[in-house]
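Structure tokens please, single chain.
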Amino acid sequence: MCAKKMRSLSLIAIILVFQLPLKLAATDTLRIGAIPDQNPEKLNRLYKLLSDELSKDLDIPVRYLPVSNYTAAVTAFRTGSIDLVWFGGLTGVQARLQRPGAVVLAQRDIDTKFRSVFIANTQSGIPALMKQEDLRMLIGKRFTFGSESSTSGRLMPQYFLQEVGVKLTQFKGRSPGFSGSHDATIALVQSGSYEAGVLNEQVWKSNLKQGRVNPNKVRVIWRTPIYSDYHWLAQPNLDKRFGKGFTTSIQKTLIGFNKKSKETKKILNLFGAKRFIKASEKQYDKIEKIGRSIGKIN
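Here you go.
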């Protein structure tokens, strides 16, 4: 082979080597995650559908990476292991503070006026509570929150309890339980393991509708005032990885979901919402303030 041809082949090889990283970047995978607030079977079904839809709309591979608990979701976001996460209000604030530049993208229509529900086992003797001050009736009862880092299953309920002078040390055993998820809270109160508990209202309604709640054994005794909760949080470097404007494209895609599409209708139904809307950091200022006051944010 002549020297000229050898030089040409070497030049081609060098060009291919330098082009390889660009090609790999073009096929980079968007990794999504979520706090494990419900049973894994439902979450796997929901985020498989969502991953497929985002992959189609954004024209990139999208992969759902489940995590073991709320703290793991925050850690995975902080270390950059997950790019886009469905957080609760508290975990979203925690993750954003640990990852400067992270972007609050969207929330569900129901997240602007979210509520928690306090529930009780029907054999507990706890009546329906007519006003917030009646939460004092829970003193001395076996009581469980959800996850320790849950906004609707711990943070805001604890805030409403403290507003009327109920301390955590006043529950039976001198401390509350932490079930780990909203579904688990229902199961524990329904079984009588705990006399009362508190959880996300949307999850309560979903379980009730699906026949997973026995109203003869457990019922709602009080609904909290409204607050802002869940939202999508994106890593600050997505435009650098996927191209200018990519973060905005994700936001537009989520907000563009509607029930006219068979696929997005399933996704929105599983999220318990009619649509996604824009969200902002300012909506979670109160969550941050309360989180700091009870030691969940340093």
